[in-house]
Design a protein that fits this description.
Elements lengths: L4 H17 L6 H13 L5 H12 L3 H13 L5 H13 L6 H11 L5 H14 L7 H29 L5 H13 L3 H12 L6 H14 L3 H8 L7 H13 L2 H5 L14
């Protein structure tokens, strides 16, 4: 209330840590207060620390949705980053709004990742999240359906080319991206790992997607190590993905999620 926001957030953070160390439950409102102050005043990276603690303790789809929206609102993400944040949103059950499906499909591009675009669109139709009269999604679905057969047929040659010792970075990353979109995580891991050793690689993107592939393969410990290496503009996305992998540990999976009502906090 004295506009000493950074000091206040540090005090609240210490109070949360003290509650956790004593084994006591941290009230939902403590996290919300920290997020609200940090978000309204764009205090980074503290805002993400409160968000991560909040969804760790209160991992409802609604809270995940707020966490994703908050991260999007605080950053100027372009399609490559949006693709990876919407992948997470879908995985945690927070992809429910029609515009988000449009953004996801635009980021995936039905011409480039037809199987993923098709799966997202059909899931949105089936869930009733988007109208079957959505012209953009219907057009994208038509494009995806027309591309999948040839795209699949090209995968063996792409795999072979990417494994070649003389393969160019563009070929290796194209193979990694394709296999990730088809859920062939082992091959995606192989090619993102190879790409990371090549000159000119977009390190943040390759690390993020390597972590996503490792999480998809069920190797959550490796995924956490990978996400921890991501810095720059992708760091907030990697932190959210890391929170997801933390929730997949046996202890977290055994704990019953605590549901809580949501507030208007992110404007998203």
């Amino acid at each position: 209330s004295a506009d000493q926001h950074t000091e206040g957030l540090a005090f609240l953070d210490d109070a949360i840590k003290a509650r956790k160390s004593s084994g006591a439950e941290v009230p939902d409102r403590w996290y919300r207060r920290g997020i609200q102050i940090a978000y309204n005043n764009e205090i980074k990276p503290q805002v993400y620390d409160f968000v991560l603690g909040w969804i760790e303790d209160y991992p409802s789809p609604e809270n995940w949705k707020d966490a994703v929206n908050l991260t999007r609102n605080l950053n100027q993400f372009e399609n490559p980053e949006l693709l990876d944040i919407f992948r997470l949103s879908r995985k945690v059950g927070a992809l429910t709004d029609a515009p988000e499906y449009d953004y996801y499909v635009e980021a995936a591009d039905a011409r480039r990742l037809p199987k993923e675009a098709k799966d997202v669109i059909e899931a949105g139709f089936a869930a009733g999240d988007v109208s079957r009269d959505n012209s953009y999604l219907n057009e994208s679905l038509e494009v995806a359906n027309g591309r999948i057969a040839s795209d699949r047929a090209d995968l063996p040659a792409l795999e072979s080319d990417a494994r070649n010792a003389s393969a160019q970075l563009r070929t290796v990353t194209a193979a990694a991206s394709a296999f990730l979109s088809y859920g062939e995580y082992g091959k995606a891991i192989e090619f993102y790992t190879k790409a990371l050793g090549m000159p000119g690689v977009e390190t943040g993107e390759a690390l993020t997607r390597l972590g996503i592939a490792q999480a998809g393969a069920g190797d959550f410990a490796a995924a956490r190590e990978t996400f921890a290496k991501v810095d720059g503009k992708r760091a907030p996305i990697a932190k959210l993905w890391m929170a997801y992998t933390e929730a997949q540990s046996p202890a977290a999976a055994a704990a019953a999620p605590r549901e809580t009502a949501t507030d208007e906090m992110t404007g998203g």
